[in-house]
Amino acid sequence: MSRLRIFEEEHPDAPVTVANTHAEIARALAPVGVAFEQWEAAQPVVAGDAPEAIMAAYKADIDRLVEARGFRTVDVVSIAPDNPKREEMRAKFLEEHFHKEDEVRFFVAGSGLFTLHVDGRVYELLCEAGDLVAVPDGMTHWFDMGPEPSFVAIRFFTEPDGWVGHFTGKDIAQKFPRYEVGQARE
Ligand SMILES: [Fe+2]
């Protein structure tokens, strides 16, 4: 189940707020400029389907988002728990960073943990299948796919080189919960 926990940045051990419904999560994220939506497939898709079939199932929502936000590229990324490069892939965005364009992801299947650091608070967002999250450009955050990663996600890009991680060099991500063994399994 999708979940949002909000922490004061100095207190990683005790969240000040926990939201467990989609509506509560969206309401809590809106003031910091993060969009959180649920999309439904027009026809059933499963992990392993061709990217074209996955994108066709969500065409109406994809087109709406591309039109509204001016994205130029949309793709589908998949990772399974037995991927030989999973450790390297997991490590890539585990520390605090930002991008010069919005980071927009729709989870077709599986799950992942986005943690956002904004205005002295830390927003830990567990995304599940059906969730769309849009992290604004410049917002510091990190992403954990867990040690046994499992997801299929649609990604949206504005510039060919826009989705580069600019790392802050801070160790804040290490103080907050990671996505643990087993959590990413469906
Ligand atoms: Fe990122």
Describe it for me?
With 186 residues, the protein is of the alpha+beta class. Helices cover 19% and strands 35% of the residues. It is built from 5 helices and 11 strands. The strands form 2 sheets. Strands 1, 2, 3, 4, 6, 7, 8, 9 and 10 form a 9-stranded antiparallel β-sheet that branches. A hairpin with a 2-residue loop joins strand 6 and strand 7. The structure holds fe (ii) ion (FE2). Fe (ii) ion is lined by residues 93, 97, 99, 103, 141, 143, 165. Residues 93, 97, 99, 103, 141, 143, 165 line the site of fe (ii) ion.
Broad shape: globular
Q: Please report the number of helical segments.
A: 5
Portion of residues in beta strands equals 25-35%
Poorly predicted runs: none
**Overall pLDDT level:** 94
- H and E order: EEHEHHEHEEEEEEEH
Q: What is the rounded distance between the termini?
A: 11 Å
Label the structural class: alpha+beta
Q: Tell me the helix content.
A: 10-25%
Q: Cofactors and ligands present?
A: fe (ii) ion
Number of strands: 11
Q: State Rg.
A: 16 Å
| Main sheet: strands, sense, barrel | 9 strands, antiparallel
